[in-house]
Amino acid sequence: MNGIIIRSIGGLYFVESSENIYECKARGIFRKDGISPSVGDNVEIKDGVIESIYPRKNYIIRPPLANLDQLIFIVSVAEPAPNLLLLDKFIAVAEYQHIEPVIVFTKTDLEDCRRYTNIYKTAGFQVYEVDYTREDPAAEIRELLKNKISAFTGNSGAGKSTLLNEVCGDFHITTGEVSRKLGRGRHTTRHSELYKLPFGGYIADTPGFSTFETNKYNIIRKEELADCFREFEKADECRFRDCSHTKEKGCGVLQAVEEGMIPQSRHQSYCSMYEEAKKIKEWEL
Prior knowledge:
single chain, about 280 residues, alpha/beta, Rossmann fold, Ribonucleotide Reductase Protein R1, domain 1, 3 domains, about 25% helix, globular
């Protein structure tokens, strides 16, 4: 029987098939082979045991999620203000893992977010703004999620849980405000889990940005980094085959930055990440 892992807790895996949800254990051979079943995996089960894991199209180690169609970054434009370098690092990891990155700006009633939306629309990403003064603020997000496997991520206070509840109130995900009243800290998500959407698809709520690793578990070589900045494709070819796109004369990327085709903040993030990548030793890869 085929199914998808929708939850994983303490060595138990909850697999949803077309008929039911089954509580399963994994065969010991997976540990032997250095493989661990993950939320989002398509698996074959028999008598409460996961017999095989089908090939993954992508995989994030921490938080562990497989086969995502899109990774949705929830970013508040105020309280807290956006950290664009951090956001660009996460976008690069998503690109590296072949997951479509989507940016959603929240708290747009507190501050104008056009300067941010312009950066990422110019770079070629899907960008959405959530305005809770609208009649149905989550309508566009609901359409975005339809029939796809998606994950929300974002730093504490950005409004992930609030938006999830707006998309579908049946989630019953506790928001930060309620969490503080209960004395459990600001963030209440303890594990990765897929929630089935009534209009088709799944959504995963994950721990905050601090546990979405951008270095130890998702290292990007400096030679591969430019491929994780999709707007660099707009630039003319550089004079040098091994151009770093950081300071070389005749670099098409630098020219595109000067001409406004590539947002300056995005190129600054690239340069910062390139310097970090240069320090990575080969044995760490």
